[in-house]
């Protein structure tokens, strides 16, 4: 593998000058794919060229069927050219390459179109580099007899990594650190290893944010090492043309079904709408809004509900990560059919953002109610190329082992890392092999400890109750309060005569007492208004009563027509009550000692869920003793005195 990678790297280095290092990948990656496909199709080339003319006028479906049968693969090439013939005619190389590429079946031609390979070929031709590069690739023996699908996949993965590191783009947009993927993959299969080693095993893996295919590749590599005879199908989708081309090319090189990699926005154009998978992996974008997809997503949420993907709710439009989480869950097989396990890496927001009743909280609660959250692993900061924020791996499943049912495991791996000798973008830390083994062992052991906590699902649920206090006001016709009355919108609408009459009525009240009972005050107010020839409508009476009133804990309680106390909205408060606590008991112990007249408005109660990860691993560190601090200060002062003494000498 190393020899092949070095060989291709040397070709890339020959591009220096006309091409920037960040552009090397757009030349060597498609050329590597082209050379591999040329070698793969070599043995059946003659048969394909024999069949092609016989089906030239046949319907497209029949053409494809006959030609794929002839090639022995899910793709073919009807051009007479191969690499040997291409380099044999240097003068017409550019035109012949175009003819060769157009001879591929549409499912492969798509790869080169998304790579924008024509642009690279034109530039190579313009800079007199095309023949040299083509000739060097022609020397590479990529035939399956020489290089297996697995080996070729490893070569291509190394080239992808190499190209990404030299890219000027934000690597994290399409490249998840390999050790993070390795951890996710091992977590995904940790409790299934025994079952996966049996002969005749058939499994499928899906990544809805496939990028360049790194997660699928690492999963493929891990499972084939575990069980070389496993029948594995890899599926993925991505919306970025270049990433899609690389991923699809990687799958072709590995011998996977070329049609299992799709282009498009997963959230609005689910390419595998009717499919379910055994395993899923995803690293969706962090903190990216979904304004452009909002209409489609909300339409699915409201019209399809729980039969669609977004039944539990939708998060705030500023961050769509939880939409990908729900999408992954929708791809789980039914438990009766064996169930599924998924792993997704998210930032900290999905753990706690949104209060009870919000979209985020409703999604968390739905996952917990359905016992789908198996584990959450907190990763070190500075792990990704384009962000230094805290990240977490969520392991989700609908087939928990008996001991895990109704339980969630939190694993604190935030301090388990090795420092990089040289940072890559925002990436300063990495997971060592030992770190990964430790985390996976903690997960598999499922035991409480310093870095592993086991909770019941209900421990993350709560109710948000609305605590009301009675409205208690006094009324007095002071100049300031009267001015406030005349600032109100309802009073602004009065005619001039009515406004004058109202002011005169309020002036009548100025010489009178302070009222602490609303009924008595309104009786006096109506009397004063009547004396001025003014009839108080219900809205006007309400406005004047509100504007002349001020809070007074010694006043009588204001009550509605049924005699119930009215709430003072300025004193309204909310409390989060743990799921297992009785609300009345909670209020008696936590509220009434401080507000004996408070009550709960049960019509406003909301159910919520949050996972306060850091709180559960917080360890109190007591401040240093004052004696030690004084000692350090005295030592520092002694040093300063000594320095001053030196200066004075």
Describe this structure in words.
The protein is of the alpha/beta class and 649 residues long. 44% of the residues lie in helices and 14% in strands. The chain has 27 helices and 17 strands. The strands form four sheets. A nine-stranded mixed β-sheet has the order 3-2-1-4-5-7-6-8-11, sandwiched between helices. β2, α14 (241-253) and β3 (261-263) form a beta-alpha-beta unit.
Q: What is the number of helical segments per DSSP (H or I, 4+ residues)?
A: 27
Sequence of strands across the biggest β-sheet: 3-2-1-4-5-7-6-8-11
Beta-sheet strand percentage? 5-15%
Which word captures the global form?
Answer: elongated
Q: Which structural class do the helices and strands define? A: alpha/beta
Radius of gyration: 35 Å
Helix content bin: 40-55%
Q: What do the pLDDT scores average to?
A: 90
Which parts are unreliable, with pLDDT below 50 for 5 consecutive residues or more?
168-174
For the report, how would you describe the main beta sheet? 9 strands, mixed
End-to-end distance, in Å?
72 Å
Number of strands: 17
Put the structure in a nutshell.
The protein has 649 residues and is α/β, with parallel strands linked by helices. 44% of the residues lie in helices and 14% in strands.
Key features of this structure:
about 650 residues; alpha/beta; nine-stranded mixed beta sheet
Task: List strands and helices in order, with pairings.
Layout (H helix, E strand, L loop, with lengths): L1 H12 L11 H16 L4 H7 L8 H12 L11 H5 L5 H10 L3 H10 L1 H10 L3 H10 L9 H18 L11 H12 L3 H4 L5 E6 L6 H13 L4 E8 L2 H13 L7 E3 L15 E4 L11 H10 L17 H10 L10 E7 L1 H4 L6 H11 L3 E6 L12 E7 L9 E6 L5 E7 L2 E4 L2 H13 L6 E5 L4 E8 L4 E3 L3 H9 L1 H4 L3 H15 L7 H14 L6 H11 E3 L21 E6 L4 H8 L8 E2 L5 E4 L3 H4 L9 H23 L1
Parallel strand pairs: 1-2, 1-4, 2-3, 4-5, 6-8
Antiparallel strand pairs: 5-7, 6-7, 8-11, 9-10, 12-15, 12-16, 12-17, 13-14
